[in-house]
Design brief:
47% of the residues lie in helices and 16% in strands. The protein is α/β, with parallel strands linked by helices. The structure holds coenzyme A.
């Protein structure tokens, strides 16, 4: 049975479903390998512009790393798993296509970390975002402390990490890292509506803005502002920049070519 299901919703939009519902879609090595194979394939497909991630079943997006894989006390295997997880998360964050996490239940540990690497997060009301590693005597290893603090600030992050607060879909929406919260039945429709809008953004512009957003978390403001203008000047002279402006003036839809 496939641990990650791929659905080509359209030429431009792909849905990847983490598919271990009997284990709350916990991440094991085989699942991550399948996931990366799909992602590598999608990256090569010029038609695809948006990838939506979700979890199989009605309870869980991803309940974190597969704790059973940790249980044999093999330190080398544990470290290799963590390095691999970091590589996967960095790859998602830097993915050249736009990404949406459609969080349909528990997003714990590595599941929350994957959501935090996506461009847009939508959630169902039963979503629960948490980082429970401390309960296992561990701490996050796939960016949880760093990306959550950057996303919501140190004190909300501390509440999640140290006081076990699982943020509901509604709370995550209020905090601003989830951009829409819906009933579970409407979650994929909501994600697809977001995708529809994202398809209107010119491909190069989307890629460049993704990079700028990443940089905004780390670079000094003057550096970020200079990079922002460099990007804008490049886009202005690109085919798509010229076409977008021309189409607006001529009151027609633009035909972007990704160059
Ligand atoms: N790793 C391995 N197995 C997991 C898992 C994980 N992270 N999360 C859930 N499972 C398994 C359970 O062991 C159980 O398997 P079993 O039926 O063979 O016993 C199955 O998924 C269902 O989980 P269960 O705990 O019975 O469901 P629940 O509704 O009572 O609770 C959770 C759901 C997600 C709250 C609970 O499973 C949990 O706390 N999971 C661990 C989350 C975690 O610590 N993640 C960070 C890991 S570093």
């Amino acid at each position: 049975m496939s641990l990650v299901l791929r659905e080509n919703y359209s030429d431009e939009v792909v849905i990847l479903t983490f598919n271990r519902p009997e284990k709350m879609n916990a991440l094991n090595t085989d699942l991550l390998d399948e996931f990366m194979a799909h992602m590598a394939d999608i990256e090569q497909d010029d038609a695809v512009r948006v990838v939506i991630f979700t979890g199989a079943g009605e309870k869980s997006f991803i309940a974190g790393a597969d704790i059973a894989e940790y249980a044999d006390g093999n330190r080398d295997a544990f470290i290799a798993f963590q390095f691999n997880g970091r590589r996967v998360n960095d790859y998602i964050e830097q993915f050249p296509k736009m990404t949406i996490a459609a969080v349909n239940g528990y997003a714990l540990g590595g599941g929350f970390e994957i959501a935090l690497c996506c461009d847009v997060i939508v959630a169902s009301t039963n979503a629960r975002f948490g980082l429970p590693e401390g309960l296992l005597g561990l701490s996050p290893g796939g960016g949880g402390t760093q990306r959550l603090a950057r996303a919501v600030g140190r004190y909300v992050a501390a509440d999640v990490l140290l006081s076990g607060n699982r943020l509901s879909g509604q709370r995550a929406y209020e905090l601003g890292f989830v951009s829409a919260v819906t009933e579970l039945d409407d979650l994929m429709t909501t994600a697809l509506k977001k995708a529809d809008y994202m398809l209107k953004i010119a491909p190069l512009a989307a890629q460049e803005m993704k990079k700028l957003l990443r940089i905004s978390m780390d670079a000094a403001l003057p550096t970020g502002l200079s990079l922002e203008q460099e990007v804008l000047f490049r886009l202005y002279s690109s085919h798509d920049g010229l076409e977008g402006i021309k189409a607006f003036v001529e009151k027609r839809d633009p035909k972007f070519k990704g160059r």
